[in-house]
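Deliverable D4.2, example record:
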Amino acid sequence: MTATPAVIGLSAGNRLLATSFGSAELASPDAYPSRQFAAAAPKLTVVAHRASASASSPANIGGAGHARAHAIRALRNHSAPALAPPPPADPAPELDSKFEFESSLEAIVLLQRSMLEKQWELPFEDDISSTEDEDEDERSTVVVARSGVSARQRRMSGRRRGAVVGRKSVTVSPELMQSRNRIYLRGTVSKDLLTHKQVVQLSRKIKDGIWLQHQRSKLKEKLGNEPSYKQLAQSLRIPAPELRARMRESFLAREMLAMSNTRLVISIAQKYDNLGVELPDLIQGGLIGLLRGIEKFDASRGFRISTYVYWWIRQGVSRALADNSRSFRLPTYLHERLVAIRGAKYALEDQGIAPTVENIAESLNISEKKVHNATEAVHKVISLDQQAFPSLNGLPGDTLHSYIEDQNVANDPWHGFEERYLKEEVNSLINSTLNERERDIIRLYHGIGKQCHTWEDISRQFGLSRERVRQVGLVAMEKLKHAARREHLDALLEEY
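Output generated by the structure prediction step:
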């Protein structure tokens, strides 16, 4: 039975254990402590990358046994006591080779078991901690920056980091953000009624935002362009994040007050419904007045905001009604003047005075021309497609277009036909009655098919005097009159 030499290397620290053993056929089942480790031995066997030729040759197996004896004893003492002790050494020279092979196999199995136990007992956190320790060592490595540009950049970045760390963070009030999200989740109308204390706080934030906008406008006039947040913050000597937060809070406070008073706008707009303007347009005008009233509201006077913004909402609805109630929009000042004229008219009638234009102008202290212009602008525009009379059976009836005559002659088709027929008859009469020179003079003077010319212009074209051209024209007209009477066209000729 021949032994198959091999070199086995197992990583144990920084040392490499090398040995040779026989084939698997030489190993008896009793030589292994357990079948589990006997089966695991070939799986964990690693061929050594570095082995000497003397250790791998069969001739040097006996000489290497004494060198490996100390390692085998150390492994045997270090292994678990539960394992079976190795067989006693036989001093007989014929058994030295067999003992050496069995001891080598047993040492390999014990070493493999110890390595497996160490791997099984090693927790996963140890691997992570070791990796983190290596990373920390790499990060803790001190890199000395050179002088020059890199040193200046390092100093400047360190100052900026210190300023950012030492600066107090400025954020928007979470109550405003939370209420804004609630409003948008439910819709545009807020059902939550604000207390007077909340209204006062929101009004102060709005006033602060208006003041910031005023300062921004002043800075814009000074710089000549739109200033940035950084420039505005520097001019006000406040941090830029604080400026952004204050402007954001002002915007949210205005929005919150507007949402909480939207129901008031709807209730006022409903009073002006069915007056020629759609309800959404009236509500839009009321919201514009509401925003204007919120900006003008002064909480220090002690009034409720609903009492103050009521008149602003009413003004916005009235302007929306005035702008959209007519087909042709009238300016707002003209509507206000009409209201004043109507009030003056009623006041004069109550006093028993005739409401003439002179009296109305005198009572309002305006000119009579302004009163005339205002009263002429109130003419109502009616569509011709509107039904002339209400339908009794529900079917569409005749429109106003069927009863109202169009006074524009250009829209009459018979007028166009008569005009074309008249031109054809006149041209035929001129061609059949006059000679070539008379025809040209008549056409140039009366502008038939061309532009009208004077006798002076015609005389230059023909090389004649002005008086001679006029005489030829008068003779030609007398010829046309006699010919028209014969053709019974004298009336058309005179009209033409």
